[in-house]
Amino acid sequence: QVQLQQSGPGPVKPSQTLSLTCAVSGDSVSSNSAAWNWIRQSPSRGLEWLGRTYYRSKWYNDYAVSVKSRITINPDTSKNQFSLQLNSVTPEDTAVYYCAREVSWETKFDYWGQGTLVTVSS
């Protein structure tokens, strides 16, 4: 059974960096058949895919255009986890953030983390 366990702070101040981690059990972040995603949901923006990291003989990252200049997703193979960093946050970045595993375009996201509410406020 695959499980994704998120950790990280809830409140963040404007202009700071949002950092979240997703620990994976039951699969490997360096699997050649999976991709590891970050997604967020807010009332104003709905469900928004942010980016992913995946290994296919080397590591690749794909990022949403809307956050491409501010986002980094990094795998940590020693801890079998992956992280999200989002720089220069504003109140518009307030959302519930999820990590999720993707195994194919057909099934898309088959396992999700529990979600983390991140509030950006001074």
SSE topology string: EEEEEEEEEEE
How would you name the CATH homologous superfamily?
A: Immunoglobulins
CATH fold-level topology = Immunoglobulin-like
Largest sheet: 7 strands, mixed
**Domain module tally:** 1
Task: Describe this protein's structure.
With 122 residues, the chain is mostly beta strands. It has one domain (3-115): Immunoglobulins (Immunoglobulin-like), CATH 2.60.40.10. Helices cover 0% and strands 57% of the residues. It contains no helices and eleven strands. It has strands at 3-7, 11-12, 18-25, 35-42, 46-55, 59-63, 71-76, 81-86, 95-104, 108-112, 116-120. Strands 2, 4, 5, 6, 9, 10 and 11 form a seven-stranded mixed β-sheet that branches. The chain is globular, with a radius of gyration of 14 Å. It is found in: Cell membrane; Secreted. Its main location: membrane. Keywords: Adaptive immunity, Cell membrane, Disulfide bond, Immunity, Immunoglobulin, Immunoglobulin domain, Membrane, Secreted, Signal. Residues 1-99 form the Ig-like domain.
Relevant terms:
single chain; immunoglobulin domain; disulfide bond
Please provide a brief summary of the model.
The chain is an all-beta fold.
Give me the secondary-structure topology:
Elements: E1 3-7, E2 11-12, E3 18-25, E4 35-42, E5 46-55, E6 59-63, E7 71-76, E8 81-86, E9 95-104, E10 108-112, E11 116-120
Parallel strand pairs: 2-11
Antiparallel strand pairs: 1-3, 3-8, 4-5, 4-9, 5-6, 7-8, 9-10, 9-11
Subcellular location: Cell membrane; Secreted
GO biological process, one term: adaptive immune response
InterPro entries: Ig-like_dom, Ig-like_dom_sf, Ig-like_fold, Ig_sub, Ig_V-set, IgHV
